[in-house]
Amino acid sequence: MNKTELTQLISKNFDYYQTGHVADYIPALAKVDPKQLGMAIYDLQENHLIEAGDANVRFAVESMSKVPVLLLAIKDNGIDHVFQKINTEPTGFAFNSIMNMEINHRKHPMNPFVNAGAIATTSLINGKNAEEKFDRILAFMKEICDDPAITLNEEIYQSESRTGDINRSLAYYMKGNQMIEGDVPAILDTYFKQCSVNVTAVGIAKLAAVLANKGIAPWNGQRIVSEKSATIVKSIMTIAGLYDESGEFSVHVGVPAKSGVGGGLLAAVPNRYGMGVFSPALDSFGNSAAGIQLLTDVIQELDADIF
Ligand code: DON
């Protein structure tokens, strides 16, 4: 696929933003212009990246941060330790539901991509205080997105923190049930910040390319994460990356992907492509409305369904 073809698919799918709404439960996200659609594709075989539309617009990473933070938690603690604390099962419940901890006998968060599991994952990041933990997360995001300009969006962070009471309840519930250790306000502060960093579709495509390329950055040949952790993360993206739309997405699109309420989508096609999409209007599950339509067309065009 070349830039012209990608531009045509963006035009074809642009109007789907009208079928969704920007996230309004976080005031700073409610202000984002819904009329945006952009995509970047890192082609591993050609070792080059194409981008079109709003692929360089900065937007809040939100739940896509759950991918790099899980990778960093595995680097810090090892695979076994992380998955003793957090399961790897789909839930069928909304991303912020307390049921995500209650439906199995083990009393663990069901997976690292629902909020409970993500907060538990953040609690595992090494660092002597919240500031050092967030600095490590930010440095890792810059490295894996090959984007030194990633910064904290202070307005989104304040908004997340002010409106984050459901996340607080999930975290205190986990602490009270010995599912997490540490200082809850400090863990939440790091979680709110990790959701509030500004990324672009280009940077997300590079992150996805590292996952698709078994943990090695294709732009310089350096290993960033282990092959095993890249594989595990892609598996969890397949079962839980798009919340309770994950099953439908696997059936109709068929690639490991992760969404965020900032309107981002990250998709990793093993050994072939890393993809980043941005369009802020969300469908009823909280996933980018036009983004999913565009990704569906691109995957079909590239014959990239992994199943
Ligand atoms: O925890 C929250 O509510 C948000 N900061 C992140 C949630 C999110 O992106 C869910 N996504 N689809």
TrEMBL record:
Keyword Acetylation included in the entry's annotation: yes
Entry-linked Pfam families: Glutaminase (PF04960)
MF terms (GO), sorted A to Z: glutaminase activity
SUPFAM superfamilies for this protein: beta-lactamase/transpeptidase-like
Residues noted as binding substrate in the record, renumbered to the chain: 63, 115, 160, 167, 191, 243, 261
Subunit structure: Homotetramer.
PANTHER family for the chain: GLUTAMINASE (PTHR12544:SF29)
Protein name, entry field: Glutaminase
